[in-house]
Amino acid sequence: MTICSPRDSNNRRNLRQAQAKGRNRASMKAAQYAANVLPIIREIQMSGVSTYFGIAEALNARGVRTARGGRWHATTVRNLLVRRGGE
Hints:
The chain is mainly α. It has helices at residues 12-46, 52-61, 74-83. The chain has a domain at 30-87.
């Protein structure tokens, strides 16, 4: 998929459009990932774990990776819950 052709690459307007499309796609992917992980977090919370740190530890213990393939941290859990409106 080509966002803009090489001859259009110097056009600032096309660059801004491409950047906006990239941001929108990244935001959509993050929301989709959050929707997939949220049920796991809810299950962890139902088991009595209530802190961000505790949830992060439980996710790591289960082998659940972040959207970028990393380990969970308290701030990562918080950011996901804020994104989903579940804090």
